[in-house]
Write a structure and sequence with these properties.
Layout (H helix, E strand, L loop, with lengths): L10 E2 L17 E4 L6 H8 L1 H6 L7 H10 L4 E5 L1 H5 L3 H8 L4 H9 L2 E2 L6 H5 L1 E2 L10 E2 L3 E3 L4 E9 L8 E8 L4 E9 L2 E6 L7 H7 L7
Parallel strand pairs: 2-10, 3-11
Antiparallel strand pairs: 1-7, 3-4, 5-6, 7-8, 8-9, 9-10, 10-11
Helix pairs in contact: 6-8
């Protein structure tokens, strides 16, 4: 297994699983900049309203935290796309909104926020050829990121194949064990918002929601 230190707090070292496969091609995902001077709160409310209202606002003092990060090391948000949020079933939406579940909802939301560093798309996909290679392929220079709620792995996305077999790396990046793929990235102030095609939080979080039995569900 590879073992070496990464000095940036938001990053964790690569794992062997992050090093296997073929060398990735350059990403073709969209990179953009928000209008100059636009706050992260305004950007999210206008572009990702369901994520902002259902999840992000559940983190106490989140915008104060992001403002402080914006003034120092920057921040990173993995933001589920609008279609992902729209496809959350009604039971889940009720559970997320129930005040009795605020602690769990905050944990779910926290897995989408890095408050101590701006982790760009280019940084996520960068390879490190200074460490021993696995099967002739360089490791990703970071194997994971540290969010407000805990660590998430960083890996390479795959597409194609049939029934889970024969898929090949497509040059993209995935976050978390559910492999939420980075679709596009937008720079907002000194931070970056990565739109992803799924939740980055572990599935275990949803099991905690299910422990609360609501009438009619």
């Amino acid at each position: 297994a590879l073992a070496y230190a990464v000095t940036v707090d938001a990053f964790v070292g690569p794992s062997t699983s992050a090093c296997t496969g073929r060398r990735i091609a350059p990403l073709h995902q969209e990179n953009a900049d928000a209008p100059e001077g636009e706050s992260i709160e305004t950007f999210l409310q206008q572009n990702y309203p369901l994520f902002e209202s259902l999840l992000l606002q559940k983190i106490p003092n989140i915008y104060s935290t992001l403002k402080e990060s914006d003034d120092s090391d920057g921040f990173t948000i993995f933001c589920p796309s609008n279609s992902v949020m729209e496809n959350v079933d009604d039971k889940r939406k009720v559970q997320i909104s129930d005040p009795r579940n605020d602690e769990v909802t905050e944990k779910l939301a926290g897995y989408h926020v890095i408050a101590n560093g701006k982790v760009t798309q280019e940084r996520l996909k960068r390879e490190d050829w200074t460490v021993p290679k696995v099967d002739g392929v360089a490791a990703l220079s970071i194997g994971g990121v540290l969010t407000l709620s805990g660590e998430l792995r960083v890996g390479r996305s795959k597409s194609g194949g049939f029934m889970g077999f024969g898929a090949k790396e497509d040059g993209g990046v995935v976050i978390g064990n559910n492999e939420a793929k980075v679709v596009k990235s937008t720079t907002v102030g000194n931070g970056v918002v990565h739109e992803v095609d799924g939740f980055t939080a572990p599935d275990l979080i949803w099991r905690y929601f299910d422990q609360l039995r609501l009438p009619g569900f």
